[in-house]
Amino acid sequence: MARRLMLALPVLLFLLLVGQCHGGKIGVCYGRNADDLPAPDKVAQLIQQQSIKYVRIYDTNIDVIKAFANTGVELMVGVPNSDLLAFAQYQSNVDTWLKNSILPYYPDTMITYITVGAEVTESPTNVSALVVPAMRNVHTALKKAGLHKKITISSTHSLGILSRSFPPSAGAFNSSYAYFLKPMLQFLVENQAPFMVDLYPYYAYQNSRSNVSLNYALFSPESQDVIDPNTGLVYTNMFDAQVDSIFFALMALNFKTLKIMITESGWPNKGAVKETGATPDNAQTYNTNLIRHVVNDSGTPAKPGEEIDVYIFSLFNENRKPGIESERNWGLFFPDKSSIYSLDWTGRGNVDVMTGANITSANGTWCIASTNASETDLQNALNWACGPGNVDCSAIQPSQPCYQPDTLASHASYAFNSYYQQNGANVVACDFGGAGIRTTKDPSKSPILFYCYSVMIIMMLCMVS
């Protein structure tokens, strides 16, 4: 009877959890700096055919906004840097803009975000001081229209807003931007808006090949892990390292609760002679792995399992963009709407749904508590894993599925293995000052842990549904 109950519980839990499945969102950037692109209505059809639900545009072009009416696609629109002065100076300018560019088309067109300024610290003219006043005026205009809780306001940034990004734990904002950055971060907190940043591992690889391998930039399993010497966190890809450098920079300013959203990331499909990494194959590999990383809620070493929304750059090649060859070749599609390379937007292609912190192992090894470790050492290591190690230890709390057996060794083994698997099953990640030991025996085979691991399987299935 007890065995039948144990077998039935995961099924019941699945029925309870199936309606709560969620995951990070994947969108696409629709840039239009080209003279050969299809009409906006044709683009909207293409996006629907690809089952893309989230699109970013860089202005409030009326034809584009109208094209997405009644499509079910959520739109992120932008206030260009060239409009910041007018938006910051007079509330009436913003009120008129909202009346003419947003209200006539909302909610038929599902506008969910407004970005006020784009990578202002990279702008040739110094418009940084205008960002927060402009954001406040946009918020006031939305509030007058009763939309301030339906449309979220933020501003996008490049990684250049940091003065230091390596190791990730040393991430720090450039102090020269403090005059506008701190008020902006406070605005984001007050309005529950994300910190938006554009991240490009391609440039990290292209500009520093001696330090950044192509495998590391592309999420390849063959890449050599990078260990943050300050935290011991193990990084298997450049994207996670860049995201965490932003997180640690925010934490240093006491804004650690801010959600991070990646408003641009991608890989060029073509480049100049010296840009050997810019190929369709590499672009396909990067974007495929990025999508998989996001929809599986892999999180980052500093924030494992946390949802992160990402917009792929870009929908089309843009032939009017200045700069080197790769600048014009980030597209997923040619202007005739044919694919440059195939891309699985679901993130499910060839994904092992059983992979997880405490379900299976990437390399056939697990990390458990050493029988030679003292209770003091185990407790200290457990406290570190569930604290600075950022392991989600909620499952081993009283009344939770992995609380039993209620022993220090069992709880420590759960936390150790979570940390170990989340950090690439690296030898260093199972040290815990000698309290951890690697094993090739799957701990989930223990009957007493069947219930716990069944729940974890359900949770992982939920992540990819």
From TrEMBL:
It comes from Zea mays (Maize). The keyword Glycoprotein applies. It is a lipid-anchor; GPI-anchor. It holds the Pfam family Glyco_hydro_17. It comes from the Eukaryota. Its EC number is 3.2.1.39. Residues 1-23 form the signal peptide. Its main location: membrane. One of its GO terms (cellular component) is plasma membrane. One of its GO terms (molecular function) is glucan endo-1,3-beta-D-glucosidase activity. Residues 365-454 form the X8 domain. Coiled coil: none annotated. It catalyses: Hydrolysis of (1->3)-beta-D-glucosidic linkages in (1->3)-beta-D-glucans. Belongs to the glycosyl hydrolase 17 family. GO terms for biological process: carbohydrate metabolic process; defense response. Keywords: Cell membrane, Disulfide bond, Glycoprotein, Glycosidase, GPI-anchor, Hydrolase, Lipoprotein, Membrane, Plant defense, Signal. SMART domains: X8. It is an enzyme of class 3 (hydrolase). This is glucan endo-1,3-beta-D-glucosidase. InterPro entries: GH, Glyco_hydro_17, Glyco_hydro_17_plant, X8. It is found in: Cell membrane. Gene3D superfamilies: 1.20.58.1040, Glycosidases. The gene is LOC100278152.
